[in-house]
Specification:
With about 190 residues, the chain is α/β, with parallel strands linked by helices. The chain is built from 5 helices and 7 strands; from the N terminus they run βββααββαβαβα. The protein is globular, with a radius of gyration of 15 Å. The structure holds adenosine-5'-diphosphate.
Length: about 190
């Protein structure tokens, strides 16, 4: 499957299969943990690609609460900034968990806007080690981002970089449903 693109307001929303560390957007988002001191998955890959200065900077930030985000430089990455977003560890039937995942995306976009960032790439936060089921996580991620895009037009491009074809398919299905339900609204 190739890239999928939809336009909402002034923003192009794109889903692609790929590696978040290689994106040339102004900012990439890290699926960080609350220590901000690195970890596995996306976090480890971003720290390796950015180089040791990234850890030097994240050490000064005093961690980050679940559902929040903090920004640093991108160092050796193509992206000028990294926004470290902390998603929740999945717990079934806990009503706070979806809200915390939505908040991680919202806070990332707020910080990006405050910094003047126009293009941003997200991974599928919480869907790896944190165990969030992909269909639910995709729906929350895309609904949250689409709502922000519908409210304002600060961003030129928001890109989801999904690690393999099956994750891309799940995000694509969720996006088609969201687009359809928005077009039925009057
Ligand atoms: P979390 O701890 O928030 O669950 P992970 O890094 O374990 O974060 O996984 C989040 C998602 O990112 C998973 O879907 C995983 O397949 C994907 N992923 C892992 N490495 C990369 C990468 N380099 N680029 C994009 N996505 C990645």
């Amino acid at each position: 499957m190739n890239a999928i693109r939809v336009r909402i307001n002034q923003t192009s929303l794109e889903l692609i299969e790929g590696d978040i560390t290689r994106q040339d957007t102004d900012a990439i988002v890290n699926a960080a943990n609350s220590s901000l001191l690195g970890g596995g998955g996306v976090d480890g890959a971003i720290h390796r690609a950015a180089g040791p200065q990234l850890l030097e900077e994240t050490r000064t930030l005093g961690g980050c609460q679940t559902g929040d985000a903090k920004i640093t430089g991108g160092y050796n990455l193509k992206a000028r900034y990294v926004i470290h977003a902390v998603g929740p560890v999945y717990v079934p039937d806990d009503p706070h968990i979806p809200e915390m995942l939505a908040s991680a995306y919202r806070r990332s976009l707020e910080i990006a806007h405050q910094t003047g960032i126009r293009t941003i790439a997200f991974p599928a936060i919480s869907t790896g080690a944190y165990g969030y089921p992909l269909p639910e996580a995709a729906d929350i991620a895309l609904t949250t981002v689409c709502n922000v895009m519908a409210e304002n037009s600060h961003f030129e491009q928001v890109r989801f970089v999904l690690f393999d074809e099956s994750i891309l398919q799940i995000f694509n299905s969720a996006l088609q449903q969201i687009v359809q339900s928005r077009s039925h609204r009057t």
